Amino acid sequence: AGANLNVSTNWDTGGNPRAFLSSGGTNSLLNAGTLTKTGNFATNFDVPFTNTGTFNVNEGWVFLTAAGVNNGVFNIANGRTLRFDVSFTHGVGSALNGPGAFEFLGGTHLLAGPTFNPNAIAYFTGAAATVTGSWTSSAGMGVYNGSLTVNNAAVFNAGVTFNGGTSSFNDAATLNGTVTFNGGTLSTLGTTTFRSEEHTSEL
What pLDDT does 120 receive? Predict the structure, then answer.
């Protein structure tokens, strides 16, 4: 038993607060069109989710609680959050767009290159995440638990917070915004540059 739901055109989740829950068997959700989350409440995706189209979180919050793949686009509206509770594969050319936020709570995440340029703030709160390509961020980033590994050059043009966990930069890292360090472990193999209006310092 089980069900496979394919979205190939446009679909609005409407008023169902728990739209995609597994009831046993083999279940899956494939979005190859446009899937839009509305309604000011949280929605769990408790089935494997493959996105090759566009997924818009316009209202409320979305928690991805089953493993999945993103080879398309996630658009998160201002004040909204898309949370990854388990492992997810983020393919080359996939996009994470704001101005809302992405939270990596659990699982393992490979954010494939050659570039990773989200224009949404990214929170790492327990997952093990690796960014393989270069990373340019205009929206900020925070590491609170888990681990973040960046294997290529990274430029952060907004605020960065290190509050726990392990952060590893294996190439050059430039932090142009406010840097807050409250805990955790920060390791750098390349040149790390902290910039302000008054001065520039390097590690």
Answer: 86
Residue carrying the six token digits 């960046």: 150
Q: What is the pTM of this model?
A: 0.87
- Distance CA(106)–CA(152), nearest Å, equals 23
